[in-house]
Amino acid sequence: MRRVSRIAVAGVATATLTAALAACGGTSNDAASSSSGDGKSKGVALAYDVGGKGDQSFNDAATAGMEKAAADFKYGSKAVEPTDGESDADKTQRLATLAKAGYNPVIGVGYAYAPAVAEAAEKFPDTTFGIVDDETIDKKNVADMVFHEEQASYLAGVAAALTTKSKTVGFVGGVDIPLIHKFEAGYKQGVADTNPKVKVVSQFLTEKAEDGGFASPDKGKTAAEGQIEDGADVVYHAAGLSGQGVIEAAAAAKAWAIGVDSDQYSQDALKAYKQYILTSATKDVAGAVYNLAKSVQDGKPETGVVRASLKTGGVGLADSNPEFKGNAKLQEALKKATDGINDGTIKVKTS
């Protein structure tokens, strides 16, 4: 029988972790690690999803949480990049190596790690494992860290519908999978509920992650260019590293882009395009990673489903762009939508 889900997250201010994200450093920091044999964790470890560090999105958010945990708890950290064409066995070996070295927790960043996390957790029952964006693993030493992405995407749809002048907006999804369908569904619903006369054009870059849907800025750029040619003047992406191409295309056309996962307006790698980044639909992967590390440090490891929502502060819209933040009509509409989602009067679709 599935254990009771724990609706949690928060506990760490997203703003603090955003600051940490801006200062992401190397992939390993073992200088302060504890491996004295006293049972303490050597540190927190990440196994990156496709795109790896530097995606300005999903993986970098996880890095921010890892680095803040390492700093606060004065221990080590380690992050390992994926390889092209790797198997589940390769992923399992990566997680097992980290656990055997004494890292705790060990976190698989992305749903593709589900089989590997399940197997590694069996082999290392005294290590706490985490997985981001998957809730299928039912083991006493695994935390399934998931998010209501559709809720933040609904707000992105509201923003797009109130910003467009052409009455056409775009959506670029990295891979045609249920997780990304949540982003698309929420976005389309937010647009339709705000202005049913606004058209949404959608495209998924690939059918499988291994074909580069989350790691190919050129694919994202081409898709966004096509949507802009079709009249879209606001394009929202849920495409990881590929989203950099979407943002570049929007900037070149002087159209609006809506980022994802992290506050992309504030990222140095995207500063050349920042004036065209309206907002970003964020999910606090950094907070989820940090909170799991803290729970292990406190001797009460999180396990089961840990789901973040608008209500917990685990998803939302970034307001770093002054033009976005200063638009009173838009902010009023977003507050109304947020209140409706939180009190249940707005039921956001996931597909």
Structure commentary:
- Helices cover 38% and strands 20% of the residues.
- With 351 residues, the protein is an alpha/beta fold.
- The strands form two sheets. It has a seven-stranded mixed sheet, with helices on both faces. It has a six-stranded mixed sheet with strand order 8-7-9-10-11-13, with helices on both faces.
- α3 (88-100) crosses α4 (114-123) and α7 crosses α8 (243-252).
- The chain starts with 13 loop residues before the first helix and ends in an 8-residue tail after the last helix.
- Mean pLDDT is 89; it is low at 1-27 and 30-38.
Summarize the helices and strands and which ones pair or pack.
Blueprint: H1 14-21, E1 28-29, E2 43-47, H2 58-73, E3 76-80, H3 88-100, E4 103-108, H4 114-123, E5 129-132, E6 142-147, H5 149-163, E7 168-175, H6 178-194, E8 199-206, H7 217-229, E9 234-238, H8 243-252, E10 256-261, E11 277-283, H9 285-297, E12 304-308, E13 315-317, H10 322-325, H11 328-343
Parallel strand pairs: 2-3, 2-4, 4-5, 5-6, 6-12, 7-8, 7-9, 9-10, 10-11
Antiparallel strand pairs: 1-3, 11-13
Helix pairs in contact: 1-2, 2-9, 3-4, 5-6, 5-11, 7-8
% residues in beta strands: 15-25%
Total beta strand runs:
13
The major β-sheet equals: 7 strands, mixed
Helix and strand sequence: HEEHEHEHEEHEHEHEHEEHEEHH
Structural features:
seven-stranded mixed beta sheet, alpha/beta, globular, 351 residues
